[in-house]
Amino acid sequence: MSLTREQMAQRVAQELQDGFYVNLGIGIPTLVANYVPKNMDVMLQSENGLLGMGEFPTEETIDADMINAGKQTVTTVKGASIFSSAESFAMIRGGHVDLTVLGAFEVDVNGNIASWMIPNKLIKGMGGAMDLVAGAENIIVTMTHASKDGESKLLSNCSLPLTGKGCIKKVLTDLAWLEIEEGAFVLKERAPGVSVEDIIAKTQGKLIVPDHVPEMTFVSL
Amino acid sequence: MAGFDKVVASYEDALIGLEDGMTILAGGFGLCGIPENLIAEIKRKGTKGLTVVSNNCGVDGFGLGILLEDRQIRKMVSSYVGENALFEKQLLNGELEVELTPQGTLAEKMRAGGAGIPAFYTATGVGTPVAEGKETKVFNGREYLLEEAIVGDFAIVKGWKADRYGNVIYRHTAQNFNPLAATAGKITVVEVEEIVEVGELDPAHIHTPGIYVDRVVLGTFEKRIEKRTVKAVY
Predict the structure, then answer these.
(1) Could you tell me which chain B residue has the CA closest to the CA of A162?
(2) Coiled-coil annotation: which residues (chain A) (predicted)?
(3) Which residue in the set A66, A127, A130 is minimally distant from B173, CB to CB?
(4) How many angstroms separate the CA atoms of B179 and B202, rounded?
(5) How would you classify the pairing of strands B50-53 and A139-142?
């Protein structure tokens, strides 16, 4: 069985460490916030200028001046700070964020990522994605392994215009956990019930399959 | 006006000197912290052929989106413009030009513009369409792009409180691009919710010192919410 969105978020959450400053992109990455282990302190960075993003407000506490990078109304946690967009991207570009999680259309064996532009379709813009991938040392890309038509998104060369070059080392798909090493995807873990053959069939870029590929494990919270 | 007193009496006075073809830097992220009344005044004034530098372009019927209705904007410099049907239409039929700029680069372009730095190197955008036509240089084995600063003929800014000298503080995440735009306008106009007497604001808490600010105007704000999210209460 391929992973659900929630399971993908849970798997990413296993990479969190106590004291991490984390930037979560829109979509599946946002869900990671729901799976921060109870005994762990993690501070969420939102690139519109907030470090220490909290949960959504109530109808009583909602405030138009308090939003996240997805333009949703949010709250702050204790110990949060608020600053300008330049300060926010100084944190990001200066490599101060410990973990960045974001979605993508394609990733390739050289760590290139395409996530913002499909030619001949409407281009909405890259937002902060190019800054995030260029600035972060520790990035996890979350995406489906293949398109609905079965086209692989793990490629030898990205076909779409890039968001960043040579900056991705870890990818979580609905089928597998992979790491990019020396021009190849290395299959580290597979989703429960998904065979290595399935993953090979849906990976277009060079894939290294170790002798033993463990199934992912999920601890109930 | 006397001495350092920056307060003007009306929105009309706040935008004296704004002319067709000028470049305007606008604060705001989505609809949060946008100078909504200054934008409405630009619409009323009918200034055309504008280049607007702003992270986003509002939505249909609110924020910078209203300046599209009478085709007042010639070019947008933004990081994300996906929330606006009229924008899409004008872009596709060639009435509007857009220069998509990574969000951090956009912020830094304004910061540099205000700080007298003509250009800066950044790793953001290397190997992407953003790099086309730009000079690159390798530092410590990594490639960087040369990005040029931006200054505006006008900066339009939304603050929370200002004193009469133009010292400004922002409220929560309505800060965003506002203090950056404020530094990089030849004429910087700040609209605020409250004007206080000089000395009331703690000098250590000022976000935008009055030296950057030319005009302060008092407004009332709708503060429309783009994505209203609340937690489920059981």
Answers:
(1) B128
(2) none
(3) A66
(4) 17
(5) unpaired
Q: Give the pLDDT mean for B104-125.
A: 98
pLDDT at B234: 63
Say yes or no to pLDDT of A69 above 80: yes
A67, B32: Cβ pair inside 8 Å? yes
Residues of chain A with Cβ-Cβ distance to B172 below 8 Å are 63, 65-66, 82
What pTM did the predictor assign? Answer: 0.96
Q: Answer yes or no: do B177 and A135 touch at CB < 8 A.
A: no
Phi, psi of B82 (to 5 degrees): -85, 5
Of A56, A71, A125, the CB nearest to B226: A71
Give the gap in angstroms from C-alpha A41 to the nearest C-alpha of chain B: 21
- Label residues B137-169 b or e (16+ Cβ within 10 Å = b): eeeeeeebbebebbbbbbbbbbbbbbbbbbbbb
Instruction: State mean pLDDT over A59-64.
Output: 96
* pLDDT of the residue at B1: 46
Q: pLDDT tens digit string along A141-195? A: 999 999 999 999 999 999 999 999 999 999 999 999 999 999 999 999 999 999 9
Name the residue facing A84 among B82, B130, B180 (closest C-beta). B180
Options 1.10.10.10, 3.40.1080.10, 2.40.10.220, 3.30.428.10; which CATH number does B11-119+149-218 get? 3.40.1080.10
For chain B, what are the domain ranges?
Answer: 11-119+149-218
- Domains parsed from chain A with CATH numbers: 5-208 (3.40.1080.10)
What is the count of residue pairs from A and B with beta carbons less than 8 Å apart? 169
pLDDT at residue A123, rounded to an integer: 81
Q: What percent of chain B has pLDDT over 90?
A: 93
- Residue B111 in contact with partner chain A when CB distance is under 8 A: yes
